[in-house]
Amino acid sequence: MEDRKEEMPTAFTNTPAPGASSPPQATRKEEGFGSFLADTFEVLILTVILFLAIRSVVQNFRIEGHSMEPNFHDGQYLIVNRWAYCPGIYVDIPKVNIHVDLHRCLWQPKRGDVIVFRYPRNPRRDYIKRVIGLPGETMEIRRGVVYINGKPLAEPYRLNHATYNTGPITLGPDEIYVLGDNRPNSSDSHAWGPLKEKYIIGKAIVSYFPPKYWGIVSHYHVEPGG
């Protein structure tokens, strides 16, 4: 009897010919790499959005100089609350500055607050000072003593006292008067005039470096004649 051999239909074979590639596996590999790139891109976008969101609320600040001695020191790092007074957006990208001012819409600075602001004569530089005078008040300094609307201001925080005289000057509706705690050695409103609120970056809230200065920043709300 003649032997008969049946051939397996090629449509049902799962073994590729020698040297042949497997299209389904190659497709899955390409899809996996594309998915990895998409996931990586999404993570990067979310990271940038999160970074910008955080930067719109808080900002770190390094003190340079001695104008706030004896309460704040050269090289000390602070965290600044950008939303302490009103919401604003300020994004710093190398060679690109985007700034939208939304001032005078919620809360206003209080006397005694320690604030960080852009120096009016050079907005690329940031200064730290204490709020002393508020909009509409008349400021005068006699032998280092601050007078507001003719009444002396008893300041409870530590100061290096000055002996200079300046004023009187009446602040506009969008102006405040700022002074350094180291009065004889501070470039502030007694030297270059009132600060417009649009230059305010935020309120100092935490000192975090060096460790010996770690803590919440104290703010004193005082009134003249008190």
Structure report:
It is a single chain. The protein is of the alpha+beta class and 226 residues long. The protein is built from 2 helices and 14 strands. It has one domain: Umud Fragment, subunit A (Ribbon), CATH 2.10.109. Strands 1, 2, 5, 6, 11, 12, 13 and 14 form an 8-stranded antiparallel beta sheet that branches. A 4-stranded antiparallel beta sheet has the order 9-8-7-10, with no helix packed on it. The chain is elongated. The N and C termini lie far apart (125 Å).
- The structural class is alpha+beta
pLDDT < 50 runs, ≥5 residues: 1-14, 51-55, 87-92, 100-105
For the record, the CATH architecture stands as Ribbon
Helix content: 10-25%
Number of strands: 14
Q: Largest sheet, if any?
A: 8 strands, antiparallel
Radius of gyration, in Å, reads 32 Å
CATH superfamily: Umud Fragment, subunit A
Strand portion: 25-35%
Put simply, the count of helices is: 2
Give structural attributes.
Umud Fragment, subunit A, 8-stranded antiparallel beta sheet, 226 residues, 4-stranded antiparallel beta sheet, alpha+beta, disordered N terminus
Please describe the topology of this protein:
Layout: H1 23-55, E1 58-62, E2 77-81, E3 89-93, E4 96-100, E5 114-118, E6 126-133, E7 138-142, E8 145-148, E9 151-152, E10 166-170, E11 175-179, H2 189-192, E12 195-196, E13 200-209, E14 215-216
Antiparallel strand pairs: 1-2, 2-13, 3-4, 5-6, 5-13, 6-11, 7-8, 7-10, 8-9, 11-12, 13-14
